[in-house]
Amino acid sequence: MPPRTTDEQPEIGLFEPLAGFAVTAATMFKKPNTESYPEQKVPTAPRYHGRHQLNRYEDGLEKCIGCELCAWACPADAIFVEGADNTEDERFSPGERYGRVYQINYLRCIGCGLCIEACPTRALTMTNEYELTDDNRADLIYEKDRLLAPLQDGMVAPPHAMAPGTDEADYYLGRVRPTTSEEVLR
């Protein structure tokens, strides 16, 4: 067969133009894959990166030591941490310091999780909560009170002393048990 010149048009069969419509016709009769959000919420994957959470030890002291490594690791500059020193009268974490001010700006956060990897005490983790919308921009800057994990049974709200007979290493190694309010008052 001799080579075609640019002036010649290829022959089109009778049914070739209808082949494109066949794909459209096939999808017209399939069941739609629609989610009825927000009426029916589909569970997220277990490792989904949602809202951040500042964790606590079993006795209620905060895990955040105010080191600011999460803020340094954040590529979007969405985290602001201001550390302060613990005193014997006001102890918020078992170490020398704690995060006095902790803010995450969800208008900037890209959900990458680099802050989680940078945290040396596992104080910062991400939950499965994904509904982070608001009609006010200022409400999307989460302060420490909205980021802290809720108190569980056996936890006492800081400030309070470390558990009796423990030191900082016991906290970091997970050797602390829940306390009661009577133990804190001693």
Short description:
This protein is of the alpha+beta class. The protein has helices at residues 16-28, 69-73, 114-118, 144-147, 168-172, 181-185, and strands at residues 52-54, 79-85, 97-105, 124-126, 141-142.
List key phrases describing it.
3-stranded antiparallel beta sheet; 6 helices; 5 strands; 20% helix
Per-chain topology:
Layout: H1 16-28, E1 52-54, H2 69-73, E2 79-85, E3 97-105, H3 114-118, E4 124-126, E5 141-142, H4 144-147, H5 168-172, H6 181-185
Antiparallel strand pairs: 1-4, 2-3, 3-5
The strand line-up of the biggest sheet is 2-3-5
What is the number of helical segments per DSSP (H or I, 4+ residues)? 6
Provide the residue-averaged pLDDT.
Answer: 88
What is the terminal-to-terminal distance?
A: 100 Å
Quaternary class: single chain
Characterise this structure.
This protein has 186 residues and is α+β, with helices and mostly antiparallel strands. 20% of the residues lie in helices and 13% in strands. It contains six helices and five strands; from the N terminus they run αβαββαββααα. The strands form two sheets. A three-stranded antiparallel sheet has the order 2-3-5. A two-stranded antiparallel ribbon has the order 1-4. The longest helix is centred in the first third of the chain and has 13 residues, at 16-28. 19% of the residues are buried.
